[in-house]
Amino acid sequence: MSRPGTPSASSPEALHRMQVTRQRDTTAEVALRRILHAHGLRFRVDREILPGVRRRVDIVFVSAKVVVFVDGCFWHSCPAHRTRPKANAKWWAEKLVTNRRRDIHTNRQLRKAGWYVERIWEHETPAAAASRVVKLVRTRLRRRRHGRA
Questions:
Q1: Angle at CA 78, nearest 5°, toward 117 and 24?
Q2: Which member of 10, 26, 32, 148 has the lowest number of beta carbons within 10 Å of its beta carbon?
Q3: Comparing C-alpha atoms, which of 91, 66, 106 is closest to residue 7?
Q4: What does the pLDDT read at residue 20?
């Protein structure tokens, strides 16, 4: 069964893939969080940040005012790995464009509210992504302690 305005799955296999796709605690997210935790960083997971905006952030460093999204290559149209479904092609093209626009809007809103936004692609190695986040969070924490946001 699909939502109103959403086409039916093109096959039982496609339906199954959609049903088992996780919205949180994906393999990439869990791997990244494990490394961040091993570096001594503490964070919140799967949180709403902006009042009145139905968007959830994957990882939140409240003290550093850093939010991290771990974006799936398909759902967020990764330039290196995006694919274009053949079945229901028009609907999917619109859906994926809408996802990208929502990401851009979310980034803008969070930055306007004083947050630093970091987006990580699911295909990035967890170690490289974690290294970037650790450096960012520690830098932001140092600046905040010294009165420089």
A1: 60
A2: 148
A3: 91
A4: 53
Domain ranges, residue 66? 22-144
CA 61/CA 39 separation, integer angstroms:
14
CATH number (domain holding residue 69) = 3.40.960.10
pLDDT in tens, 108-141: 999 999 999 999 999 999 999 999 999 999 999 9
Name the domain count of the chain: 1
User: For the whole model, what pTM was predicted?
Assistant: 0.84
In a domain, 131, yes or no: yes
Q: Are 87 and 129 in contact (CB under 8 A)?
A: no
Cβ count within 10 A of residue 99: 16
